[in-house]
Design brief:
Mean pLDDT: 84
Strand order of the largest sheet: 4-1-6
Distance between the termini: 14 Å
Largest sheet: 3 strands, antiparallel
Number of domains: 1
Structural class: mainly beta
Shape: flat
Length: 81
């Protein structure tokens, strides 16, 4: 993931969750804010016997701060070295 000019403190991240109950988020990567070079995003997790489906999504939760207008660009690449 790479960012350019992401203005809020709540940047883009990957989330892994149970799509039947989105409140059961397993993990999320650190958010990407400001301007950054390409960085690898990686998560390790275990599921329970109750989990039958997982959803991986890209999320950019809204900021709770007064100046919360989202601006900037985020790139995602699937090229794994």
């Amino acid at each position: 993931m790479r960012a350019d000019g992401v203005t809020t403190h709540s940047g883009a991240r990957f989330q892994v969750l149970d799509p039947y109950d989105a409140s059961k988020e397993f993990l999320a990567t650190d958010n990407v804010i400001g301007t950054s070079a390409w960085t690898e995003q990686r998560l390790a997790f275990k599921t329970t016997a109750d989990n039958h489906l997982l959803l991986m999504r890209i999320a950019w939760p809204p900021s709770g701060k007064f100046d919360n207008k989202i601006a900037g660009t985020v790139w995602i690449d699937d090229d794994v070295p």
